[in-house]
Design brief:
This protein is an all-alpha fold and 253 residues long. Helices cover 77% and strands 0% of the residues. Residues 25-251 form the ABC transmembrane type-2 domain.
């Protein structure tokens, strides 16, 4: 059964990746918005923002990477919605394939597409002056956190992709996720914020994830931030996966 699942997922993943490669503009579009934000904040607002660090692009990049992921998962919801409306799911159900492999193919496609977008954003940041003395292990840790965050948000995206009534509804859920880094330590230190805003910023998942990535890039002790970040990512992933699979079973039953 496990071999059947992996084989079916691999075939369906190939199908999804083929669709992505035929519309590379989706990956480019996903990266354009975060890059535009990075250019705007570094070259327009950066001189007026006191981040307490030498280079604002170094301070800013972790938050921009999370925004890149939040932008990218909207396409997962969109692709799922189109498959649902196009009758693709019903066609797959008539075939002797593992049912969950259909969702996993979309999720892994999202992971691949988002990782490509993240690499593009990092390359642009390097051109803008981003520098890090982090070693290979620190970069692997950053990649691990971003991968886990992508999986968590992608499974979250599966739910509106299966339940939305319109294309706009399928992708609109990502807007609050894109906005969330603005109320965190992604752009400015939280101690510059008013009391209630600061309390929210310091106790939402983006701040701990951003702080952990920033500390890894700057070779600072990560402290408890990395464990809080991992706990948030795993918690969101487990809950989102459970609800997504429950929604999927109801849809195909």
């Amino acid at each position: 059964m496990t071999k059947h699942f992996f084989g079916d997922t691999a075939v369906l993943l190939g199908r999804s990746l083929t669709h992505v490669t035929r519309s590379v503009d989706t990956i480019i579009t996903t990266a354009v918005t975060p890059i535009a934000m990075m250019l705007l904040f570094v070259y327009v607002f950066g001189g007026a923002i006191n981040s307490g660090s030498g280079s604002y692009v170094n301070y800013l990049l972790p938050g921009i990477l999370l925004i890149t992921i939040a932008s990218g998962i909207a396409y997962t919801a969109f692709r799922l919605f189109m498959d649902m409306k196009g009758g693709i799911f019903e066609r797959f159900q008539s075939m002797p394939i593992a049912r969950s492999s259909v969702l996993w193919a979309h999720v892994l496609t999202s992971l691949v597409a988002n990782l490509i977008s993240l690499v593009v954003v990092v390359l642009v940041a390097l051109l803008m002056g981003f520098r890090s003395g982090a070693g290979a292990l620190a970069w692997l840790a950053v990649a691990g956190i971003l991968t886990l965050f992508t999986l968590a948000l992608t499974w979250l995206a599966v739910i509106p992709g299966l339940t939305a009534k319109s294309v706009d509804g399928a992708s609109a859920f990502s807007y609050p996720l894109i906005f969330l880094p603005f109320i965190s330590s992604a752009f400015v230190p939280t101690d510059t914020m008013p009391g209630p805003v600061r309390a929210f910023a310091e106790h939402q998942p983006v701040t701990s994830i951003v702080n952990a990535i920033r500390d890894l890039f700057t070779q600072q002790p990560v402290g408890t931030d990395i464990w809080i970040a991992l706990a948030w990512c795993l918690g969101i992933l487990i809950v989102a996966y459970a609800f997504a699979m429950l929604t999927y079973r109801r849809k195909i039953s």
